[in-house]
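User: Fold this, then the next.

Assistant: Folding the first:
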Amino acid sequence: MTSPPGPRGVPVFGQAFNLDMDHMHLTFMEWQKRFGDMFMFKILGKHFMVVSHPDILRKLFATCEHANAFNDRAHSFMNKYVIHNSKDILFRNMDDKQQFLKNAATNFFENQLVEEKWFYSAVTDEIRLLVSEIECLIDREVDIIGIMDKLVIKIMGLVLTGNRITESSREFDSLAGFIVPANELATVKNASVLTKLPMLRKVPGKLKNLYDALEAKKNDLREVFLNGTGQCERGLVFMLRNLRVTMGMEGGESWIDDDFIMGVVMDLIPAAILPLQNILSVLFLVLVHHPEVQNKIRGELTSLNADVRIDDIMKLPYIDACILELKRFHTPLPVSARHCNRSGDAMFENYNIPKNTEIFSNLFGIHHDERFFNDPWSYKPERFIAEDGSRVGPEHPVMKNMVVMGVGPRRCVGSTFSEKVMFLVVTILMKNFRLCSNRQQELPPCDPRKFTSGIVTKAPDFKCVFQPA
């Protein structure tokens, strides 16, 4: 039985010295040109496989006979030493409990938050409050990334508690404090080292300091969001606790304990907060670089006779297309969280995939492949607009080739949640302001290959100027 082709590397170490951990997606794009849409390499004897084609991803993770096995997670430092006993959704193997929680969380983000109205109404109020603050900063340089980061933390505090939070609240401080060590510890480089050598979390140095800081912030997060008194009868934490009560009333075992709820809360950092913060950073960089896009957005907004509401997204196809193109152009998570066939060897496409092979979906490579997207390095919302002016349907090639949130049962929770938040941010701010470059600072290039590295890439730091629309 043969394995997929790929770079051979040096004995024992394999590709350990050739793979830039901070820019794996760019290396994978180069290797894809040489070895094809599915290739394999080794590091220290361990197999890694990379897939760079949307159809192969769907077959691998959704329709092939071994799809369930390929949807498991690799052993990692995060699910053993940070998430208690893998009691979460993101890092847990794909078992019944994981799927139950995944479906509950998906329903909460995709349906409940829309149907109950309170959430997007509160988000709208938060953005309008931001408009008032920006009006005091007209013609002054503004740290737009910092402003958006704070806005997202407020929105996620609202998601968790059902209440609006302020920058001076303990909830805000707890979330903001947890994000920093969690993001740093979870980088590919640090996570890989700690997975191989978990004892380093106890050895004085950078990794121990990060781990200790994360543990302290994790305890604070638990105290604030699980043991605090600020919860109301809505929000993600309430939903999960209510689900636990319902299971008990139905005569089943309520296995959703506080560790599971805490695991889901911590999942939101890499799965929701960081992606939304970072894609908003790219959004404003794109808008400053493309004043013509701003003009088209404002032109479409003139069709509304009232203030923007979340239901208006269907009436504004160009703005909807701008958001879709932003997600393609940026691809905030350039390489997906790793899958792993932990249960044993498996055959796929006439290749043998050895047990414990870690599988990367090269989402960035797919979204910047000329086979799937014409002129992929340009920001072109028009690619998502049909000839009649409407947004293209789900069967259109550009929609079928979009895999920003992954495919199959591991598809990201809340895949449309971020789109709705971005829709409100774009429409409300563009209705009130024009964005211009800062004359005192050269604007960073709008090239996704040059964005700041990380698990979730972001725009380089920059400042812009707001002017009245």
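Now the next one, as you asked:
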Amino acid sequence: MASTILKRVTSSAMKSRLESLLTGASRRSYASVAAGTDIVNAAPGVCLQKARSWDEGVSSNFSTTPLKDIFTGKKVVVFGLPGAYTGVCSQQHVPSYKKNIDKFKAKGIDSVICVAVNDPYTMNAWADKLQAKDAIEFYGDFDGSFHKSLELEKDLSAALLGPRSERWSAYVVDGKVKALNVEEAPSDFKVSGAEVILEQI
């Protein structure tokens, strides 16, 4: 009898948990950020960490950069990716922006920014390896708070990466999102590349 009750409770709990997950998924929007969102207000108090060497971090007293300093009063193209040194990020995503940097400048873009859930030292070494620092500004979102605030976080534990971000891109003018592209899966590279967002500017 006790085992029958336990079986019923377990079955009921599992059913309840499944329903909760399903209804939660249907209620949640894909991301809280969208066209028209003020990206600075959407992530209050959040700062990013400009890519740098360890010595530069020490000499700057481990300074961080408020979002308003990155976006306010500027035309910015920003793209986020799951992580430094990973396949699609290194072979396709960053290179697409690097090779199109002159086209972005011709359209009046003040800066092209790459952000990932990594520390700024890893981002710095990766940017050096890709020879992309002259074209693109790299920032770390070391604790994922930027992506969490925008609901662009992604659990990639299955790939041994842990909490990371979606693969995405946005065109932002004076802090306001004018265009946003989010891949269906972080391994996809269909809508977040430079060629797509160039057409949206």
